[in-house]
Amino acid sequence: MKTLLQIQSSLSSDDGQSSQLAHRFAARWLQANPGGRIVVRDLARNPVPHLTAERFQAFLTDPEDRSPRQREIVAESETLIGELEAADAIAIGLPMYNFGIPSTLKAWIDHVARAGRTFRYTENGPEGLLADRPVYLLAARGGLYHGTPRDTQSAYMMNFLGFIGLHDVEFVYAEGLALGAEEAQATLQNAHAQIDRLAGVRLAA
Fold this sequence. Notes:
Elements: E1 3-8, H1 17-32, E2 37-42, H2 53-60, H3 68-86, E3 89-95, H4 103-112, E4 119-122, E5 125-128, E6 135-140, H5 152-163, E7 169-174, H6 181-201
Helix pairs in contact: 1-6, 2-3
């Protein structure tokens, strides 16, 4: 049974435009993968704690020396990493807040990017430890940022995903959503068409 991990990071949960794009993607993925399973990680409804010195120290402490609290913290991280490892494909709803990614998504990143677990340092530089699989980023933005210096999200997400071993990355952009109803409708139609093309070509492959 194939599995899609759907990550939502909109503060509006299911009502966010990026979440709705992710839902559309998931529906098309199911059509291309009958009998498949979707695991939803909603970071608005179930936020991952932000990284603290206590949590970081738990990751660094040798397993046999961890306190009960540290084992609990690491178990939370392991759950998130396990969802990544079990997924055949990953879809991330990606809204833009103040030119960056949501802080809840950054907290999730801080709990899955762990030295010795999802990446390691070698004499040739860092090496991702996750087996590559397709990642789809459904980016919803109020303005027009793609291809400009203000688009800090795209390079950041590509760098992070590649750092842990995920290089097969595809973006779907829905931009200009705050520039009027006509602009929003047009950009959403384009995003929907791109999702549908991905479903018809890549997802069924």
